[in-house]
């Protein structure tokens, strides 16, 4: 089951009809003040989608929730209208509210057909591959503004997370870590990487 914690129900209803997917996702969760009971109630969660400012009880903060998800290897998505750039890590993601609700139907359809959680699809939409490689390009070119910058793949953790990108990402990262050529050659190589996924 997918659990959605949304305190702005009217916003959700404007763009997403949760009743159409009631067999996959629910927002009807009783938030008990007893964290042990509450976490037991949602122990079957495959993914948890949480509004950043969701008001839990005093002894139950969002940080407590995030720590539980991490310890129990539960996928957690935090969303808010104030978040502009989507982020995806192994067990954690962030999304803008509007983007999340726009992408939810396609994400749930994919989940229903494949029984697989596709976080990049939820965060970036149906062109999630292109969104990720374009995001990487922008971030890398920003780093190159520093003439002393040395490539470190850890600087780009959470950007190229789609499984479909793994092979090309490894080739590109190897090139970037080993090359000492000028920025024009590097830019050209990255542009080829972006162009390959322009329709995805």
Strand order across the largest sheet = 2-1-3-4-6-5
Helix percentage: 40-55%
Radius of gyration: 19 Å
Please state the oligomeric state of the protein chains shown.
single chain
- Spans where pLDDT lies below 50 across 5 or more residues: none
Mean pLDDT: 86
Secondary-structure-based class equals: alpha/beta
End-to-end C-alpha gap: 28 Å
Strand elements, count: 6
Q: Globular, elongated, flat, extended or rod-shaped: what is the shape? A: elongated
Please count the helical segments.
Answer: 8
- How much of the sequence lies in strands comes to 5-15%
Compressed to H and E, one letter per element, the order equals EHEHEHEEEHHHHH
Largest sheet: 6 strands, mixed
Written overview of the protein:
The chain is of the alpha/beta class and 200 residues long. Helix content is 46%, strand content 12%. The protein has 8 helices and 6 strands. The chain has helices at 9-15, 35-41, 62-71, 97-114, 119-124, 128-143, 166-178, 183-196, and strands at 2-5, 25-26, 47-51, 75-80, 87-88, 92-96. It has a 6-stranded mixed sheet, with helices on both faces. Strand 3, helix 3 and strand 4 form a beta-alpha-beta unit. Helix 6 runs antiparallel to helix 8 (183-196). The two termini are 28 Å apart.
């Amino acid at each position: 089951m997918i659990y959605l914690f949304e305190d702005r129900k009217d916003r959700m209803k404007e763009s997403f009809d949760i009743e159409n997917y009631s067999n996959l996702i629910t927002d009807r969760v009783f938030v008990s003040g007893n964290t042990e009971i509450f976490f037991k109630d949602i122990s079957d969660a495959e993914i948890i989608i949480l509004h950043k400012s969701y008001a839990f009880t005093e002894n139950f903060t969002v940080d407590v929730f995030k720590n539980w998800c991490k310890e129990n290897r539960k996928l957690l998505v935090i969303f808010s209208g104030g978040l502009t750039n989507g982020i995806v890590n192994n067990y954690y993601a962030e999304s803008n509210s509007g983007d999340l609700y726009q992408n939810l139907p396609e994400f749930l359809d994919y989940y229903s057909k494949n029984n697989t959680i596709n976080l990049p699809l939820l965060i970036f939409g149906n062109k999630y591959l292109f969104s990720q490689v374009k995001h990487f390009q922008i971030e890398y070119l920003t780093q190159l503004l520093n003439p002393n910058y040395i490539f470190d793949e850890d600087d780009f953790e959470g950007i190229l997370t789609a499984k479909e990108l793994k092979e090309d990402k490894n080739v590109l990262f190897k090139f970037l870590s080993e090359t000492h050529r000028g920025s024009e050659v590097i830019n050209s190589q990255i542009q080829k990487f972006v162009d390959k996924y322009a329709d995805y």
